[in-house]
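Form 7-S
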Amino acid sequence: MTDESTLLDLDQFEKLAATGEINTVVCATPDPYGRLVGKRLTIPAFRSLGLSGAGINASSFIFAVDLEMNPLDLPVSNADNGWADIRLVPDLTTLRRVPWEPHAALVICDAYEADSDTMLAVAPRTILRQQIERAREQGLAFKFASELEFFLAATPPRQAWELGYQNLKMLSDYRSDYQMVQAGRDDWFIERIRNQMPGFGVSIESSKPEWGLGQQEVTLDYCDTLEMADRHVLFKYGVKQLAHAADLTVTFMAKPKIDDVGSSCHLHVSMWSSDGSPLSWSADTAGMSAKFGSFVAGQLTHAADMTLLLAPTVNSYKRFQPDQFAGTAIALGADNRSCAFRLVGKGPSFRVENRIPGGDVNPYYAYSATIAAGLDGIARELPAPDIFDGNAWTGTGVPIVPTSLHQALRLFEECKMARAALGDDVFDHLLSSSRSELVAFDSHTVTDWEMRRYYERV
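Output:
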C-alpha cells in the first residue's frame, strides 16, 4: 500500500536541485512527542552531510526535553555529559517534496550515536525498529493505519495564543458528525489536506466532520509499520503547516474542552507473514486465526499496563469518559464501539482497532506497545478473547483503562513484560520522561478550575 510515486530517488533529487526547483532540504526526526525536529540544510550541506553518511549534528537534548523545551535530567542528555551531540542520518527512502513549500524537500532521519554506527536507543524511531525486528525474527510483520481526529478554530494562531486558547471561534457552530452540509462548508480547507497530503507521500482514504464543534476526522491508508508511523507524524506536521497558512488554529489535544468530545486516534493493525501473506483471518472459523487471537489477547492483557504509551499526557486521561466513544472498557467487540478493541473487516482486511489512543499519541510508542503486547500474547499462546456483546461501558466485570497519568505510570512501572520487551534503557527513559510531565502538572501549575473554585471561596 506504500505509494512510492511521490517520493524522490537521488537522481530525481539531483535534477530538481540542479534546476533550482529545490534549494532546501528539511532533515528531521520525530521527538518524544511525535513532533519533527531537526535542521533545514542548503543543497551543498545536504550533499556533504546527509548523502555522505556523516550525518547532521544535533544535541541529544532533543530527546530529553519537555514540551516547553525545558531540559530534563535523563541519561541520554544532561549537564554531566554536556548535552552531547548525536548524528541525524537521513533515511533516503523517505525523501520527498513538500507540496506547500515548492522549493523544499524533506527527509526523515534516524538518530545515531555521535561516534558509532549504533542507532540511539531512546529515539522513537529506534524504539519502533526494535519491535519490528523482534516480530521479524518470528516471521511476522504488521500493517497499521492511524485514524486521526483534530479540532479547527477559525481564529488565527497568533490571536489564539494571545487569547490563551480560550473562547475560540470553532469552524462549526453545532454538532455535524457525518453531515455533508458541514463538510461542504469546511472543504475550502479540508480539500487541501486530502489533495496535498498524497503529494507529501501520505495517502488519504477519506475525511468527514466529527462529533465535536470544529472537529474533523481524516483516515490514512494502511501500510507497513514504520512507514505508517512516519506518515502519521508527517500528516500532523502538514496539517499544522496548512492550518497556519490558512489562519486557522488546529489542535490534536485529546480533550481540548471538558464539555465537548475528545479527539481519538484509532489504531488499526493486521498481522502478516514476513513474505507478505495475511495471517489475521481464519477461513475455517470466519474470524481470528489462532495466532492473531493470541496477538489480540496480549493487547487486552497489557492494555492497562501499556496505557502510558497510548495516552502520554495529563490531558489524555480527560478523554476517558464512557459515554463519548473513548476506549475505556477493556473488552473485544465485533464492530462494537463501546469496546476498547474492535474487530473489523474480513479476509485480508481483517484487523483489530485499538480505540484507546487520543490525537496526542506518539505513533512510534503506540505501535511499539501494540507489537510488544501482542508478541507476549503469542509467546504465551494466550487463547483468543471472548467477544463481548452489548454495552461494554456498563458491563459487569469489564476492566477499564487507567483514568489518570498517576495510575498509568504506576502500572507501566510494574510491567515486567514492557521492561523486557523495550530494554532497561528505553523503559527507564520513558518512565522518567513521563514522571517529569506529571511533576510539571502537579507541582508547577495553577489551573483555571482552581482559580474559579478557590479564588474567593476559601
